[in-house]
Write a structure and sequence with these properties.
The complex is a heterodimer.
Chain A (H helix, E strand, L loop, with lengths): L1 H71 L3 H8 L13 E8 L2 E9 L9 H11 L5 E7 L2 E8 L6 E8 L17 E7 L8 E4 L13 E7 L2 E9 L6 H67 L10 E8 L10 E7 L4 E9 L4 H19 L4 H9 L4 H4 L3 E9 L4 E7 L5 E4 L2 E4 L4 E2 L12 E4 L5 E5 L11 H15 L4 H11 L9 E8 L3
Parallel strand pairs in A: 14-17
Antiparallel strand pairs in A: 1-2, 1-5, 3-4, 4-5, 6-7, 6-9, 8-9, 10-20, 11-12, 12-13, 13-14, 14-18, 15-16, 15-19, 19-20
Chain B lengths: L2 E6 L6 E9 L4 H12 L5 E12 L1 H16 L3 E5 L3 H9 L7 E3 L5 H6 L1
Parallel strand pairs in B: 2-3, 3-4, 4-5
Antiparallel strand pairs in B: 1-2
Classes of the chains: A alpha+beta, B alpha/beta.
Chain lengths: 534, 115
């Protein structure tokens, strides 16, 4: 569908381009053709003017000779004396033969002659008929006559009221060829001149082309030039482009240029369309990739969440006399699994241990390290070691340089019979003690985190009477990028004071709500425990 | 934006690294690498000037610990210079202020150079 649209567009552009090219070419060719015709007309008329002048020049001596005879009353000597210089075989001579005739009644008689024998015999009836005919014309008469040497133009010059007629024959070249000078104003023309209106070989007098190739073809123009009692028919055609070579090539230039432009436009249209379709396809691919990445991301997120849940205790041990509540809130970090945890271990009927810890950083290896620390600590605590000893033993087994992470952890052991807890910290925030409407951080000594390489910890013991609640948490609850850690601690203490006296699960809920964790990247683990109220 | 500017003390005895901006999980490894690169193979000690450090998360702390452990393992010394009160507090609550050698009044040549 898209492909056919593309082809239709390209075809439409090609059709329009070819149409425009054709119109332009045709218009230019027409203008060029009309221009050629006009130039041919102008030049031909100029040739006709030259021809008219030449006719006058040739005929003038005959008219003059006639005037002389009218004045002198038929003097043969005067006739020869006047026309003699114009008669001869040379190219500079106007005529080859001339004679003077006098009319008496209805017959004519030759009085004098000069030059070679005429093609029309002086004794033939045709000659005499021609001469008699000449008297009936207001101007001189012209005929063509064949002789052995070639065609001759025959003149019969007389005038109204005169009884004399001057007869003359003018030779034209046997092959009737007379090329145009290259330097002539008419060098761009082919021509053919016929005596009379008929354009056949018999009437042909002069041409610059081979007589066999006549008549002229193609773009021709024809002018009748008055010649005595008849006319010369001048036909011309251009021998080359009269308007110059550029105007001759212009239609071709427009045609080729137009077709090339059409080709180019069609090609560009196709490429643009291909580009558009590629872009659409790319966009679809990118959208598809995004959707797949999104799906993978969601899948990864779910795996992380399940792993996290599986690493945390599903439930706390049932310890009579001890209330326990906890919560875990994942940070706004995406797929990375956090390293926070809590754990409660029952030791015997009255004693228990608990841990809240935080592996720095996140990811699967942080979670794996968390699991190792958690189970290691739980094991030491289950064996009955006090918190500081459990931490010390544990600290030998972790090294930030090999693990890549360090771990902060708060370890406590509690004795319900004595109402006390013993606390040791490896770089972990101190817990809060909520009792009697107030909340205070337990001033437990803080040793370095696990993995640092320092292996000595100390512990402190604090009272945890019935009705009081100890809250241990990870730093995600209080740490904010934009404020000092003490500011977070103070807010937490205030929220805890407000919750003092509530049940453990209510305390956890209120603290998490109050500390609004939604913008933080870090995970939060909170563990609250306290002896059951009496 | 986080910047690490490496140099050496005026007497040339120790390497210096001036840390500014925030150090979190995104640049923790880079800090570790920059510190060891600043120290090089020959100098006996490294001073990490924290006066421009505005935020340090647990992975950043971990990076400082790794730098310390690596430097000390080679028999050399690490000094954290001029930590702000906020950083001092973070080192306190994580039990690390006694682990690190801290010089609160160190005059950094890098800072002097920068005017």
């Amino acid at each position: 569908m898209k492909r056919s649209t593309s082809w239709r567009l390209a075809a439409a552009i090609a059709v329009v381009g070819i149409l425009l090219t054709a119109i332009s070419t045709w218009t230019t060719a027409t203008i060029n053709h009309n221009n050629e015709r006009r130039l041919l007309q102008v030049q031909t008329k100029q040739v006709a003017a030259v021809l008219t002048a030449a006719i006058l020049l040739i005929e003038r001596p005959l008219a003059t000779a006639l005037d002389i005879e009218r004045t002198n009353g038929g003097d043969p000597a005067a006739f020869v004396g006047h026309l003699g210089p114009y008669i001869g075989p040379g190219k500079d001579k106007l005529f080859v033969s001339a004679s003077l005739w006098k009319r008496t009644g209805k017959s004519v008689r030759r009085i004098s002659s000069v030059g070679i024998a005429p093609a029309m015999s002086p004794r033939s009836a045709a000659t005499r008929a021609f001469l008699v005919h000449a008297f009936s014309k207001p101007t001189y008469s012209v005929r063509a006559a064949r002789s052995a040497a070639g065609v001759r133009i025959v003149y019969a010059e007389t005038s109204p009221g005169s009884d004399y007629v001057v007869y003359a024959e003018r030779a034209i070249p046997a092959n009737r060829r007379s090329p145009v000078d290259k330097d002539s104003a008419f060098a761009d023309l082919h021509y053919a001149i016929y005596l009379g209106p008929r354009k056949d070989d018999a009437a042909l007098t002069t041409t610059d082309v081979a007589p066999a190739s006549l008549p002229l073809s193609g773009n021709t123009y024809e002018v009748a030039v008055p010649f005595g009692d008849t006319a010369l028919t001048l036909t011309t055609s251009p021998s080359r482009h009269l308007g110059g070579s550029f105007s001759a090539r212009l239609p071709w230039i427009i045609l080729v240029g137009g077709l090339l432009l059409t080709l180019l436009a069609t090609r560009i249209a196709q490429q643009l369309d291909t580009g558009r379709r590629t872009a659409e396809s790319d966009a679809a691919t990118i959208t598809d990739l995004y959707e797949r990445v999104d799906a993978l991301y969601m899948g990864q997120r779910e795996i992380s969440a399940r792993l996290q849940r599986s690493l945390l205790p599903q439930s706390h041990p049932d310890i009579p006399g001890l209330e326990i509540a906890s919560d875990y809130v994942a940070g706004a970090r995406g797929v990375e699994i956090g390293g926070d945890w809590y754990s409660v271990v029952a030791l015997d009927t009255d004693r228990y241990a608990f841990v809240v810890g935080d592996v720095s950083g996140s990811g699967v290896d942080a979670a794996a390290l968390m699991a190792r620390v958690r189970f290691t600590l739980d094991a030491y605590l289950s064996e009955g070691h006090p918190p500081e000893v459990a931490l010390e033993k544990c600290s030998h087994q972790f090294d930030i340089s090999t693990d890549g992470h360090m771990t902060t952890v708060l370890v406590g052991t509690g004795d319900l019979a004595r109402g006390q807890v013993r606390l040791a910290s490896a770089g972990h925030p101190r817990p809060l003690l909520l009792s009697a409407g107030q909340a205070q951080f337990v001033p437990a000594p803080v040793g370095p985190p696990l993995g640092v390489g320092v292996n000595s910890y100390t512990a402190t013991t604090t009272d945890l009477p019935a009705g009081s609640v100890l809250v241990a948490f990870t730093d995600g609850l209080v740490e904010r990028r934009t404020e000092d850690i003490d500011a977070g601690m103070d807010r937490l203490a205030a929220a805890a004071a407000a919750a003092a006296g509530d049940r453990v699960d209510e305390v956890v809920r209120r603290l998490i709500t109050a500390m609004d964790h939604s913008a933080s990247e870090d995970d939060v683990a909170v563990l609250a425990l306290g002896p059951t109220r009496a | 934006m986080t910047e690490f500017l490496a140099g050496s003390t005026p007497d040339g005895a120790r390497a210096e690294l001036l840390v500014s901006g925030e150090v979190d999980i995104a640049v923790a490894d880079a800090l570790h690498d920059a510190a060891l690169a600043a120290l090089g193979p020959d100098l006996p000690g490294l001073v990490v000037d924290l006066s421009g450090l505005t935020f340090l998360d647990s992975t950043g702390i971990g990076a400082l610990v790794r730098i310390r452990n690596d430097v000390i393992a080679g028999g050399r010394t690490l000094t954290l210079a001029n930590p702000t009160a906020r950083i001092v507090r973070i080192l306190d609550v994580t039990g690390l202020s006694t682990v690190f050698d801290i010089d609160p009044e160190y005059v950094s040549s890098a800072r002097t150079d920068r005017g």
